[in-house]
C-alpha cells in the first residue's frame, strides 16, 4: 500500500508560505554578501547572525523570499529548512510584500479596552483594506500595510499604533486616520518617542545592524508615564536591595558565595544524547559549540 504525504504548509496554518524571486542578480548578491560578512563578524559563532541576516534580506525585498532564505542558508552553512523554521517563527519577518509603511494597531487586552479595536476598524474603512493587506500606490503615493499586532509593552500609553515599529501613543480613530493620511502624502510624522520614521526597508536594514548615526542620536527619551514608578521611588527614597550573594535552596550554609560565581562566564550546556541529562555531564562533541548558537 502506498502513502502520499503532501509536504509544505498545512491547510489550517495561518499566513502564506514564503514566495517570490528564487535568486538574486549577481550585483545584488555581491552587495548583500559584503554586508553579511560585516554582520557575521560580530558573532563568535556564525549561525548566531541568522536573525540580523533575515532583516538584511528583508531590507532588500520588503519581505522574505526564497532568494533571501537561500542567501542566509548559504552564508551560515545552514539548510534552507533551518532558516525557514526560524523565519516563520517571528512575526517581524514578513511573508508577503510590505508597503513603505507597516501600520500596526495593538488589539491586545489594554489597548483593546482603551479603543484599539475601534482604531483598527476605522483604519480598515478609511484605507479600504483589511488587516494584513496593503493599499495600492495611487499617483505614486507610499503604500501602507495594515495589521493588528500583539502587545508591544507600551500599555502605559494605550491605545498604541506602531509604524515600522516606532510608537505613536494615545491614539484615537481620528488621530490614526490623520497619521495614515500623512504617510500616504509622503509626509511621515514624528513618532511619539524613539527615532525618526523611515521606510520599512530602511527600518529592516537598521535592525540588521546598519544604523544611521544621526537617527540613533535623535532617539527620544521615555515619556512621563513610563518613568512614573521611578519618580515615585526617588521621591520616597526607595531603591532595590543590593545582591551580595546568590543562594541555593539545596546549598549548605557556607555555599552562598560559591553559588554566586559558579556559573559566571560559562556557556550554556550543549544538547546531550542522555535524556534527561545527567548531572555534571560534559559535551565532548567538537561541533557542539557551533550547534548551540
From TrEMBL:
<keyword id="KW-0408">Iron</keyword>
<feature type="region of interest" description="Disordered">
    <location>
        <begin position="1"/>
        <end position="20"/>
    </location>
</feature>
<keyword id="KW-0560">Oxidoreductase</keyword>
<dbReference type="GO" id="GO:0050136">
    <property type="term" value="F:NADH dehydrogenase (quinone) (non-electrogenic) activity"/>
</dbReference>
<keyword id="KW-0411">Iron-sulfur</keyword>
<feature type="compositionally biased region" description="Low complexity">
    <location>
        <begin position="259"/>
        <end position="271"/>
    </location>
</feature>
<keyword id="KW-0479">Metal-binding</keyword>
<dbReference type="Pfam" id="PF01257">
    <property type="entry name" value="2Fe-2S_thioredx"/>
</dbReference>
<protein>
    <submittedName>
        <fullName>NADH-quinone oxidoreductase subunit NuoE</fullName>
        <ecNumber>1.6.5.9</ecNumber>
    </submittedName>
</protein>
<dbReference type="InterPro" id="IPR041921">
    <property type="entry name" value="NuoE_N"/>
</dbReference>
<dbReference type="InterPro" id="IPR036249">
    <property type="entry name" value="Thioredoxin-like_sf"/>
</dbReference>
<feature type="region of interest" description="Disordered">
    <location>
        <begin position="244"/>
        <end position="293"/>
    </location>
</feature>
<dbReference type="InterPro" id="IPR042128">
    <property type="entry name" value="NuoE_dom"/>
</dbReference>
